[in-house]
Each structure stands twice: as structure tokens, then as C-alpha cells.
Amino acid sequence: MEALPESGSAVEHRRWKRVAILGGVLLCAPVLGLIGTVAGMIMSFRRIETMKAPTPDDLAAGVNLSLLASLAGLVLGGFGAALLTIALVRLHRLRVGPQSGAGAAPWH
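The chain above was modelled as a monomer; its predicted structure follows.
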């Protein structure tokens, strides 16, 4: 049995759905970075609260985790925003067709 070809609107709907899912996932990156930051700070404070004279080395592991988590969230969120923008522009161009003229705005 041969598969029926999908209509253009069904294909377009699937593409927009994928972009929406991508956007939702990308919104989680900075939040996960923030969770890692808070976890690292809690780890640092728990470690030094039991010490009489904590040193910077005693804080280093938790602060390192905090900074790496923040960096990861920001980097993933930034690259994700760029990818999402590219996907949205491409979907829009597929919908309206090629623009006439080299300087045509992508959203018009």
C-alpha cells in the first residue's frame, strides 16, 4: 500500500510544531543553568558552615560548579535563540516564497 502524499498545510503545521518544541526546550537552558548555580552555592555554604576557618579552596568546588552551570545555561540559551531565529526566518520564507530583490526584509 502506497502512502498518500501529505498536504502542504500538514507539512507546514509539522514544521511549526517542531519549531515550537525547539523554542520550549531552549527556554529551559537558562533555567537549568540557574538551578546549577543555586546548587553550587548551596554546596559551598554547606561545606564552610561546618568549618571554623574556611579557606578559598574550601569554596572552590561549589563556586566552580556555579560558574560552569551559569555559563552552560547562557551559552546554550544564546545558541538556541540564534537557531530558533534562523528556523523561524526559514519557515517564514517557505510560507511567503522567495523575495524579489537582494535587500528585501525577511519578515515582509
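The chain has a mean pLDDT of 80.
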